[in-house]
Amino acid sequence: MHDLSLHLVSIEAFCIRVPVKMPIKVAFGTFRDRPMVLLRVVDDHGAEGWGEVWANWPASGAEHRARLSIDLGERMVGKHFDSPEQLFRQLSQELEVLVLQTLEVGPIAQVLAGIDIACWDLVARRANKPLHRMISQRDAQQVPVYVTGINPDQPEVFAAARQAEGFRSFKLKTGFGHDLDVRNLQAMREALGPSVELTCDSNQNLDLPAAKAFVKAIAPLKLAWFEEPLRVDAPASEWEELSKFSSTPLAGGENFHNEQFDQALDGSVLHVIQPDITKWGGVSGNAQVARRAVAAGKRYCPHYFGGGVSLLASLHVLAAVGGEGVLEFDAHPNLGREAVVGELLPVRDGSVPVPTGPGLGAVPDLSQLAGHQTWTGRVKA
Ligand SMILES: [Mg+2]
Predict the structure, then answer these.
(1) How far is the CA of 225 from the centre of ligand 1 (A)?
(2) Of 103, 169, 325, 336, which cross-links 146 as Cys (Cβ 3.0–4.6 Å)?
């Protein structure tokens, strides 16, 4: 048995904003830089671990989450916890009233997720084991990946270039208008060929009639999934109607938390479950959701659009649970990813190797990010 116990003596937060050359569009907004919040936790023996807090939206919200990490971190340093999971459960419970008081369900859940990832990295590093071997006996050598964040402007050109680099699965951003979306998917299918996995994501942007018209139009293109066609809070009856009507499997999960996962896992509407490890649950919560998804015959495909720590954490959970899942992989240049992952994840024939080093398998190179830090803070025992 591995020693999972924790006695943290410090938590540091680093807020980073990396400029982008090409803005990245989604249905509800545009990335004009790439924000990232990294956490470093240290225990009483000097072992360290790294986590990442979801910080993409609202665009100004990353610094707030970094500050909140230090604020909430005060509740954790200097105390004993039996395991990262126990810390996660206990802190989630302790913060319930603060969530009600502030309505900050997202930022608080995201900070807890980042701390959970850091704690798992720490205990895995201390045990000199890759993170996925701390949560599973499965001996995974590689995981399949897909290209995400593909803009609606001539996506077939961008996707074909990625195909030449070794990618075999592609997700288009949709929700920009029926005709443009259908045209783009047709062009991608034509450019990439019938054997690649093609999917799309409308980021909650359609109503039921528009979604039904869209799934009818794209049915011949044989997409592997259609992600967040409707708002997450649309009536269950609308989701059920669309699911029955659509020959394309439906996907979602990046905007779920807590019992919403129970409903999705127990129901038949979603065939693809996509929690974001930095947005809710960290490794503790996501490993559980992932195992249940695979056991229910669904695909666990972790949502990811952040820096390198969250990419590695998502990869390890997917490697641990297996199934038919595929890892979301951002093919845009992003120093926030590159300064962590470096050359660790070369894509070959649609897959990347599972890192074999301790913990996540890499640590952030802060020297590469130094010029882009917008806020740092630290809390000590
Ligand atoms: Mg999405």
Answers:
(1) 11
(2) 169
Token digits for 49? 């671990």
**What is d(CA 309, CA 303) in angstroms, rounded to the nearest whole number?**
13
Q: Are residues 84 and 182 both part of a single domain?
A: no
Cα(273) to ligand 1 centroid in Å equals 11
In contact, 160 and 179? CB cutoff 8 Å: no
146 CA distance to ligand 1 middle (Å):
13
CA of 150 to the centre of ligand 1 (A): 11
| For range 112-133, the mean pLDDT | 98
60-75 burial code (b ≥16 CB/10 A, e <16): ebbbbbbbbbbebbee
- 206 and 343 in one domain? yes
Ligand 1: centre distance to CA 129 (Å): 31
The H or E element that residue 200 is part of is strand 197-201
pLDDT tens track for 32-51: 899 999 999 999 999 999 99
Distance 285 CA to ligand 1 centre (A): 19
Same domain, 169 and 231: yes
Distance 56 CA to ligand 1 centre (A): 12
Q: Which two tokens stand for residue 119?
A: 């704690």
Residues 177-213 have pLDDT tens digits of 999 999 999 999 999 999 999 999 999 999 999 999 9
182/302 same-domain check: yes
Distance in Å, CA 88 to ligand 1 centroid: 25
Neighbours of 355 (CB within 10 A): 20
Only one residue has tokens 């666990």, namely 300
Ligand 1 centroid to Cα of residue 98, in Å, is 28
Structure tokens given for 126: 């201390």
pLDDT digits (tens, 9 = 90+) for 328-341: 999 888 999 999 99
Please compute, for residue 20, the number of CA atoms within 13 A of its CA located in the half-sphere on the CB side: 16
Query: Which CATH number does the domain housing residue 299 bear?
Result: 3.20.20.120
Centroid of ligand 1 to alpha carbon of 203 (angstroms): 6
Domains contained in the chain, number: 2
Backbone angles phi, psi at 31, to 5 degrees: -75, 120
What's the CA-to-centroid distance between 170 and ligand 1, angstroms?
13
User: Are 34 and 48 spatial neighbours (Cβ–Cβ below 8 Å)?
Assistant: no
